[in-house]
Amino acid sequence: MKKLTISLAVLGAMLLGGCASQKPGYDYTAFRQARPRSILVVMPTNDSPDIKGATSVLARATVPLAEKGYYVFPVAVVDEMFRQNGLTGGHDIQSAPIRKVREIFGADAILYLHVEEYGTSYQILSSDTRVSVSGKLVDLKTGQTLWEGRAKHVDNGSNGGGGLIASLVSAVANQIIGSATDRGYQVAATADAQLFYYGDRGGVLMGPYHPDYQKDYQNDR
């Protein structure tokens, strides 16, 4: 069931990305030259009022990156290693010197994520769950930025019909259910998939463990 949920999130991201308006493409020159094989995903920074935002977005980042053909270091192991070295939050971890990070983990690149929005909110006749996230992939050998992107996904549930009172009751119920079950965790899967597959100007290129590796280079301009 968990794999099915993740696959549906990725499929949803692909469909949404296909409907998005075209924007100037990302310049992948540095990405192509670096050719990273392994990615270290660290705890995101979090501007949302929900403390679960960072951990949820982090947990959902591994699968789409692995499906794109990269070796992704186990995020729980990575986070624990940082904790043992006195770094416990996204800001502290993302401030760590990249030279030292590479010495410890041996990864090719590090992914910095930032949660801008996360959680369920009540808005008159609707109850929306929003996850907005940005990411930056940095070469751990040179410190050069290889890729940057941003994505947002909104799930407003299904309030159905029944008039004003029914809509109000449904909206409140959706907010309570969304908060109690952390619907944001589910929405984060789609937001992360959108980020890595499409971003706002283009997604992460296919990695060396994907059968289409380097085939997408021709479409990166």
From TrEMBL:
Signal peptide: 1-22
A Pfam family that the UniProt record links to this protein: GNA1162-like
Coiled coil: none
Matching PROSITE patterns: PROKAR_LIPOPROTEIN
The entry's keywords: Signal
InterPro entries, per database record: GNA1162-like (IPR008517)
Gene3D superfamilies: ABC-type transport auxiliary lipoprotein component
Name the record gives this protein: DUF799 domain-containing protein
Native source organism of the sequence: Lautropia dentalis
